[in-house]
Amino acid sequence: MTQTEEHWDLIIKPKSSLFSIDFKQVWRYRDLMLLFVKRDFVATYKQTILGPLWFIVQPILTTITFMVIFGNIAKISTEGVPHILFYLSGIVMWGYYSECLTKTSDTFSVNSDLFGKVYFPRLIVPFSVIISSMIRLSIQLVLFFCFWAYYYFYKGIPLNVNSTVFLFPLLLILMAGHGLALGIIISSMTTKYRDLRFLVQFGVQLLMYASPVVYPLSSVPEKYKWILLLNPMTSIIETFKYGFLGIGVFNFQYLIYNFLSLVVILFIGFVVFNKVEKSFMDTV
Amino acid sequence: MSTVVKVENLGKQYRLGQVGTGTVYQDLNRFWYKLRGKEDPYVKIGQENSLRNSGGNHLVWALKEINFDVKEGQVLGIIGKNGAGKSTLLKLLSKVTYPTLGEIKIKGRIAALLEVGTGFHPELTGRENIFLNGAILGMRKAEIRAKFDEIVEFSGVEKYIDTPVKRYSSGMRVRLAFAVAAHLEPEILILDEVLAVGDAEFQKKCLGKMKDVAGTGRTVLFVSHNMAAVKSLCDTALVLVNGKVQYVGETTNAVSYYLKGDSDNQNMKTFSSEYDKPEFSLHQMSLNNYSKTNEEPLVENEDIEFHISLTLKNENFKNYHITFHLINELGETLFSFSPSSTGINLRTGLNNLICTFPKLFFQSGTYYLSLYIFRNKKEAVIIEKDVMSFTVVDGGRELGVFMGREPGFIRPKFNWENKNM
Question: Which of B53, B177, B201, B286 has the most CB atoms around it within 10 Å of its CB?
Fold first, then answer.
């Protein structure tokens, strides 16, 4: 062999290392990622009259429901801030996380036709989900800030805004990361166990009640607090409320724990995804 | 020229039974059976693939020990029967799934076209789908934008480009999809039987475009059942049989090899003593293309010779006549033919009759022959139905013409004239 040192652009081998996701490839396909985002956005609300307004209708209706049930009937404390702001902030934040989670969790099963016919880095799909959900989130945040401005400037209600608001980009990364990580782990497992899909559907709903969406963390008895804090969304929602509404619990340690757990779960997620990516066509 | 695709000792193993049976209950049950040393209760019985590895692990090699190189600019056809591993090989080459063993090394940008219109979204407009589909196939946005007008023009759906694809007819959708794929410009292109879809006009367009692609020095791997298409497109072909490479070489030889592997396709029949009658003895019947042997497949676009050798034992040869019936795949008799109609008669002793069918007389297909020998033009001495069969295949055809099968079984040439000329 004289050509032992030949250069090959691509070598397809049986799966090798545990962590061999080619992020360069993902970057090369960034146009596709954006096109998927556009597709999701355009396709969801085609042939609807309200179009993207549905992004706003959903949280408003949920907020009204929560105001009636948890605010007026159950009379759960909102720590003195207007009900709308309290529930809406929780719903919007939780909504983003749950959408990232549920939509990425069926990456493989929904796209199996496509994946079976053409190769592109599979991670493109969950990434595009996170970005397209971000569009939804930003529209909903605009809604939230409209209400916020109404209460703050017009009604003159003292909302103790503080510098924690600058942590918002971090909160966004944490939410997206956790949604993605858990989502791709579940999606990798659903290639074999379809049951998980049903579990996710109502599991996410139940998990919401383990997050401080309808109640403040401060109202939870001290000895059970640690259970809630295991849920990464707890500290994210609390920090958000602390920054914009001046209520809730803010603790840097929680966020550090949150970040570390994200790194661990995300790592597991990539490893599992990487493993399944190569073989799922044979099992799906 | 340098090697751009190198496949080394490639193997792909599938686990039988486990595929698609994936609930926790079944897995637990399987585990429980295993613990007790029993057989896996979910393994499908009677799987066809013959390459089962030892030890009863219920593993099947869909591909094994595949080795081949593709040089730059080569157009390689991959042929094989259903289940021979063609699709698996394609999936490995296009990275849809990964090999169990071995390596594929690739130099340059590779694009695989296993389907036309992958990822089309019905709600999006034609314009949006061009971008989406192009990106899925690996094009950058700028690239698509640069070729956009060309793609639209090629597809011929300019008027509807801003209409959602769900309102397109299926033909328009295929056109649009192919237009995108045709403007993909990878260095290595992998094509599945994309030709199988669409009407004659579309096939023509596809093949023409593919010929252009092949002509620009790009490397193409083409998988097909259509021997006519393979012959006219590829310079080299690879025959897969039961997951192994059986033959690599010049296309004509590879196609012959592939067709010969078909055991039904015997163009020669030697008769044993049961055809040794008091008056006759039948020795052999065979068919071959003019100037070829009967070991090679019969192609439609060359003269076909039909040889019969028999011995007439009776002195009174003028009393004997021989007639054949030609029967199609459906068992319908198409026509009868006999040497005596052209004044050729049997002689006492050994007869070597040759009948020539003009080229392009038969359509591709399998035919059966029945043999009749009459005495005194009324009494049948031998009636041998379906005495032998033969198969006529597509020859190489001019590129860009219809690649499917014409209707009917024969295509006789009649005398035509145009009075106004």
Answer: B177
Q: Which domain holds residue B372?
A: 268-393
Q: H helices then E strands: how many in chain A?
A: 12, 1
Of the residues A7, A48, A282, the best mutation for testing chain B's interface (the one with the most B CB atoms within 10 Å of its CB) is A282
Does A117 reside within a domain? yes
Does A199 contact chain B (CB < 8 Å)? no
Count up the domains in chain A and report the number: 1
CA geometry: angle at A135 spanning A231 and A250, to 5°?
35
Q: How many domains does chain B have?
A: 2
A4 near B CB under 8 A = no
Q: Domain limits at A62?
A: 50-283
The interface predicted TM-score (ipTM) is 0.84
CB contact under 8 A, A9 and B94: no
CATH code for the domain in which residue B147 is found: 3.40.50.300
Mutant choice from B3, B96, B114 vs A, greatest count of A C-beta within 10 A:
B96
Q: B201: Cβ–Cβ under 8 A, 6 or more apart, which residues?
A: none
Query: What pTM was estimated for this model as a whole?
Result: 0.73
Note whether residue B61 is domain-resident: no
Interface of A with B in 134-163 (CB under 8 A): none
Whether residue A119 and residue B103 make contact (CB cut-off 8 A), yes or no, is: no
State the CATH number of the domain containing residue B377: 2.70.50.60
Closest CA to B284 of B259, B267, B296: B267
Kindly state whether A191 is in contact with chain B, defined as any CB-CB distance less than 8 angstroms: yes
Burial zone of B211 (CB within 10 Å; 0-12 exposed, 13-18 middle, 19+ buried): middle
Cα of A108 to nearest chain B Cα, Å: 13
| The two three-digit tokens of residue B413, written as one number | 């040439």
Whole-angstrom distance between the N-terminal and C-terminal Cα of chain B? 53
Q: Do residue A7 and residue B112 have CB atoms under 8 angstroms apart?
A: no
DSSP run (H or E) holding B212:
helix B200-215
In tens digits, what is the pLDDT along chain B, a chain of 421 residues?
Answer: 688 899 998 888 877 654 444 556 666 776 777 677 666 655 544 444 444 434 445 677 888 889 999 988 888 999 887 778 888 888 888 888 888 888 899 988 888 887 777 788 888 899 999 999 999 988 889 999 999 999 998 888 889 999 999 898 887 888 888 888 888 888 888 888 765 555 666 667 777 777 777 777 788 888 877 777 787 788 899 988 888 888 888 888 887 777 666 544 567 888 877 778 788 888 888 888 888 887 777 888 889 999 999 888 877 888 888 899 998 877 778 899 998 888 888 888 888 999 999 888 888 777 888 888 888 877 888 888 778 888 887 776 655 556 666 677 788 888 888 888 7
Q: Are B83 and B215 members of one domain?
A: yes
Picking from B24, B118, B164, the nearest residue to A193 by CB comes out as B24
